Amino acid sequence: xxxxxxxxxxxxxxxxxxxxxxxxxxxxxxxxxxxxxxxxxxxxxxxxxxxxxxxxxxxxxxxxxxxxxxxxxxxxxxxxxxxxxxxxxxxxxxxxxxxxxxxxxxxxxxxxxxxxxxxxxxxxxxxxxxxxxxxxxxxxxxxxxxxxxxxxxxxxxxxxxxxxxxxxxxxxxxxxxxxxxxxxxxxxxxxxxxxxxxxxxxxxxxxxxxxxxxxxxxxxxxxxxxxxxxxxxxxxxxxxxxxxxxxxxxxxxxxxxxxxxxxxxxxxxxxxxxxxxxxxxxxxxxxxxxxxxxxxxxxxxxxxxxxxxxxxxxxxxxxxxxxxxxxxxxxxxxxxx
Length: 337
Fold this sequence. Notes:
Radius of gyration: 23 Å
Strand order of the largest sheet: 2-1-3-7-11
Distance between the termini: 57 Å
Largest sheet: 5 strands, parallel
Order of helices and strands: EHHEHEEEEHEHEEEEHHHEEHH
CATH topology of the largest domain: Rossmann fold
Number of domains: 2
Structural class: alpha/beta
Shape: elongated
Number of helices: 10
Strand content: 5-15%
């Protein structure tokens, strides 16, 4: 894209709650629209942030389709609703009589890049929970299976598959960084992981930077929601498996799910909405959590857990099942060399 021409972004909302847009409003800058303009990005339309509506939007969409308006990045928030029976009539774009999924297919065919904003747009997400009566799917995935609305072979005009900025909701930094990378021609196929997520956040684990890591190391576990200990063993936390940088790129510069006392439910991963168990409980087999840390053999984990538990300091053990620090770190006289 020419440096003289701003990168145009069209943001449409399909089947979802709008949570990713709400998250975007909590970006670390009080004026992210100015940040976009500074980065050379022109936000053509957003359902919550734009004044144009009705016939004005339809005219914009038609101009994108016939080439009168350049469309560099098509952002889609929310799952594609294909029901009933593949007709798409559960979600019709107002004033057009046409299913949203047909508009998305046509716009994706002329866009330079397509970005799925959130896990619903990426894999189906919460919109595809359970029996999935709306036949919800992602733009290019249905859970972890390639396909979705556009098909596994789809590539946008810029050569990339759908860029899956997965999360429920997405961190605003993930969205802004992705758009800026696309605007600067700095996001390539090698910068996406196997599920087409940007690697700048997907090559991290939620476990990295977690403030409960000392408890994890000693396998000192929380037993109820208010406890300070590690939530992996009993409370359903999947931070050692979830690909995201939530604990190193804090939300609002302050927190994350685990820092707020909530287990990580692995919301950036396909199928997280149907774990097969309560979100706040860890399923086990013979007392061992089924979901073990990424890349860790079960035998190693069992051996490490046994050794760690036997070596747990009293301070860590007592604090793990309390809602405040009951035993402070010992003060030890030292000689600094």
